[in-house]
Specification:
The protein is α+β, with helices and mostly antiparallel strands. Helices cover about 40% and strands about 20% of the residues. The protein contains twelve helices and eight strands. Strand 4 and strand 5 form a beta hairpin. The longest helix is centred in the C-terminal third of the chain and has 23 residues. It is globular.
């Protein structure tokens, strides 16, 4: 199935309330036990303006992502084994933790909101511009141009606050302030705990069954065939899924609120705990930068390379190549601290 066909189908789906939004996202995100590979990125990563953020929402994009992945073939441990790998060794601790400390020490620039402008290049190579404004109070405004963003702010048209957004921000701040182990669990389970992280086998099976039921219901609502249920993942498959959720949820926090130094530092510290993460050095427009390459195993074979500024940790670019079709998506990012008053006045 073409993921964009699903996205178009979702145009007519009413925008859910915050709680329903999170439940739908949680269910779809873990559908069939498949990793959330980046066949179609979460809304703040590529932000397809033509689909409509309010209509599709994070749950819609999560559905498309799930449909774009392949079945798991990783050997599994016995079904009764408890979830593992909630704490990972600091495989790439030195460069990212050092940068996180520098970011936090520098502090957040003045302002009352973070603005991210991203330019997405999809299949046709044509750029799509998108604006996300995340306020320190937790409100979010979006637009596909400076004008539409300004209009949204002037009219007070903030998107409904979703608990998921608050959860990923809180997890990042927890990591920034030192409790990385607890922050890992909080970030992994920010949208749901269908994987049963930290639960007994019986509780984990119950959580998994509930998530599968919600997934089935969501597919019915959008008129798509309901995939056959799958057993709860275990062993290496579960470990990969756990790291996948950490990578994806932390990216959500970064791409919504990168200009907040505490959030940015926390995300860097959490990324430092992902085993087999590859951190490289490069330059972008003459500036030193780091490349963060997620282990392909946690993305079901797809590749995801995030480039960040080596001095301040701000995101610069993301390049994703899907495993099945080798299609490439590229997004360029610019992040700023702003005030709502300035944005309302058109000063962007």
């Amino acid at each position: 199935m073409d993921e964009m066909d699903l996205m178009k189908k979702l145009r007519d789906v009413p925008s859910p309330g915050p709680e329903a939004h999170d439940r739908a996202r949680a269910a779809l995100r873990t559908a069939m036990g498949e990793p959330v590979a980046a066949a179609v990125p979460p809304k703040r990563r590529f932000s397809w303006p033509k689909v409509g953020v309010a209509a599709a929402g994070a749950a819609a994009v999560a559905a498309a992502v799930v449909l774009g992945t392949s079945g798991g073939s990783v050997p599994a441990a016995p079904s009764g084994a408890p979830p593992q790998a909630t704490e990972a060794p600091p495989a790439v601790e030195a460069p990212l933790v050092k940068l996180a400390s520098a970011v936090q020490a520098a502090g957040t620039q003045p302002g009352d909101a973070s603005l991210i402008i991203n330019t997405k290049f999809g299949r046709d190579g044509k750029p799509d511009l998108y604006y996300t404004l995340y306020t320190d109070e937790g409100r979010q405004f979006t637009g596909d141009s400076a004008k539409t963003l300004v209009d949204a702010v002037v009219k007070g048209n903030a998107e409904p606050a979703a608990p998921y957004d608050g959860n990923v921000m809180a997890a990042a701040r927890l990591a920034a302030n030192g409790d990385v182990d607890k922050a890992r669990i909080a970030m992994i389970t920010a949208s749901d705990n269908a994987l049963g992280v930290g639960l007994s086998p019986a509780e984990a099976d119950k959580a998994w069954a509930a998530a599968q039921a919600e997934t089935a219901e969501m597919f019915r609502k959008i008129g798509k065939p309901v995939p056959a249920p799958r057993p709860r993942p275990t062993g290496k498959e579960l470990e990969n899924l756990i790291e996948n959720h950490l990578w994806s949820n932390a990216q959500h926090a970064l791409f919504a609120n990168a200009a907040d130094a505490e959030v940015r530092a926390g995300v860097l510290k959490l990324y430092a705990t992902i085993p087999d993460m590859v951190v490289g050095k490069t330059t972008v427009d003459g500036q030193a930068a780091l490349t963060l390459t997620a282990p392909p195993a946690i993305l079901d074979g797809s590749t995801d390379v995030l480039t960040i500024n080596a001095g301040n940790g701000l995101p610069i670019r993301e390049e994703i190549t899907t495993a099945e079709s080798s299609k490439q998506y590229v997004v360029n990012y610019k992040s700023f601290r702003v005030t709502l008053a300035d944005v309302a006045a058109g000063k962007i």
